[in-house]
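Re-running the complex after MR caught last week's input typo. The corrected sequence lines follow. Everything else is unchanged.
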Amino acid sequence: MTTSTLPQGVNAQTISLRLGHPDPATLGTPSFQEAVRRVMASPQAAHALAYGNEQGSVDLIAYLVERINREQHLSLGAENVTITAGSTNATDMIARLYTQPGDAVIVEAPTYVDSLHVFRDHGVRLYGVPMDSEGIRSTELESLLKQLASEGINVPLLYTIPNFHNPTGITTSEQRRKAIIELARQYGVLIVEDDVYRDLAFEAAVPPSYLALAGGEHAMQIGSVSKTIAPGLRVGWIATAAEHVQRFVDCGTTQMGGGANPLAAQFVAEYCKAGSWDAHLEDIRHLYSTRRDALLDALSRYMPPEVTWTQPLGGFFVWLTLPEGLNGAAIKRAAAERGVLVASGEGFFTQPQAHPNHLRLTYSFAALEDIGKAVRILGEVVRGN
Amino acid sequence: MTTSTLPQGVNAQTISLRLGHPDPATLGTPSFQEAVRRVMASPQAAHALAYGNEQGSVDLIAYLVERINREQHLSLGAENVTITAGSTNATDMIARLYTQPGDAVIVEAPTYVDSLHVFRDHGVRLYGVPMDSEGIRSTELESLLKQLASEGINVPLLYTIPNFHNPTGITTSEQRRKAIIELARQYGVLIVEDDVYRDLAFEAAVPPSYLALAGGEHAMQIGSVSKTIAPGLRVGWIATAAEHVQRFVDCGTTQMGGGANPLAAQFVAEYCKAGSWDAHLEDIRHLYSTRRDALLDALSRYMPPEVTWTQPLGGFFVWLTLPEGLNGAAIKRAAAERGVLVASGEGFFTQPQAHPNHLRLTYSFAALEDIGKAVRILGEVVRGN
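Corrected-run output:
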């Protein structure tokens, strides 16, 4: 990767523990290049270059249905999966079709900052529910649902990132998922399960998905290849009940533009069907878990004892809680001046000003040999040296 | 193209004058294949596979700015163009960011049915203004704007297809464009100029664009490669004032997903910079104008004298007006039974029931040798034989 290909704000002199991006060196592998060549040389090329099947690439849907059923012990059919232009398009389409301005959408506190932004663009009201080490706290969730019901506020959606959560790295426990499904059923709330990190489990398998626990109903599961194949393809999907898939197929954008990114989706289908994704996942799980270990090790070594952090079992993120009185945004700025980029935590909350003392660190983007150095500098900044 | 690659509802036994799709034989040409190979083999591949620059492929923006300035006598900079995932994403993003539910959006009557659908998904109220051979009738437009103002209804957007309009094939005259800009300025309405057919001018150059006539303000010009390179790429753009481009860059979906379709946009940039688009446009203008001639010739030969139709100077569409009492939807069904697919006109209006006697024919998809046969059959259906 040359300097000119580095994302905005990153240069050869800085170390980024800020970006939740896959390592650029993992993109465009020989097996992916080969998949592109095969698609372009095949009779499918002209098909993939035309307006696509509205539900998305038939080949990719078939692959995903088999994979999801095998991994999640479901029995979905082709009518249960639609291809999207990444998880962004999935989230935006769900917000567009399932909310009205003024509706409430419940999210984790904290949650993925850009999802907050997508929902806000649709004029919904966002309510954050605190998390503990098992995920959203169900007692607080129940109180909120009661309160919103008593105020007559419609709550169409609960948006959650159950595995290796962004920004905290927390995986919601099975018991907690069951409690949340129970509440979602009771209050008629659809669960939007943003599960783009599920293929990056370093240790144990992830708990059963919301979609699986809810028997294919009451949940929309969003997947993506952005974290594990390449974000520049813009390919993702939604697995859910057939009635919802039909609604996505019938909506204006799908009717106008056809299925999502037909050519890119065909590249992905070809790559996956050849077994290349599974082989690549082995490689990058090793790559990222080694970096995770290095980051956690460096945090133990360099952080003052009053700082705490999460222990992610996969994904890209570690969440730091600074002692009261320390300001994440100030730490972020001071670290940036010393060449270390991190995200401060307040923007991940619906009420930023109430949560000034967090940082989010990523281990997906920085080189292994830079992680220790970056955390040492960050530790010095936190100590005020 | 094998039967398995034909769009839904089309088979080897039918002739489609219904689809507004480019001819599948024009997709995936050797020069496009070559552009894909060059991108994948270059150091830009890893960059194009990563999260993209939020405004879109820098190379494609640079190409488009130069082209738009040259062709439209504008002096745009890079800050005036953003890449989108086709015109669909452009229309949806404009609707999302520039309208509130209950707002009025003014459209041509008739207009592109799928744009109506995209706007409706955002809860806006659609008002159609009748067209004549020069485009939207400005006196009716002025009356409507006055009426909506008196009712206190906000009118953020006027959506128009100025060149080779879908479904009528009409090109709005320069004089009419100037009158409409005047009204748009007076009432504070932004003009959304859906100009995806402008590169398919068979005879004279198209009139000056709204964007050019309005000096780069008061208009958002939507472009796309879907009609002239390949719809399966999902690459389009918006050219407009920098403040609007900034709003697209800052919105939730762009912040979450990065710029639109980085890999596909890089394929397009490579293809265009090599001069391949211009060469291809020469070829397909000839292809489609020959078919247009065949269709118009066949209409003259086979339609009863009480049927009238438009004379498009480019694009894909001819609009038929049937005598009062004949029903377009019934004609469509009867023609389909005899293997000829056409679109009936009512769905292109905001008030379908008031416009039962139109058909839209396309000449982009059917083979030249099938067009005469299809129109002969359609003529027999219209005559009730």
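None of the earlier attempt is carried over here. Residues 276-302 of chain A form the longest helix (27 residues). Confidence is low (pLDDT under 50) at residues 1-5 of chain A.
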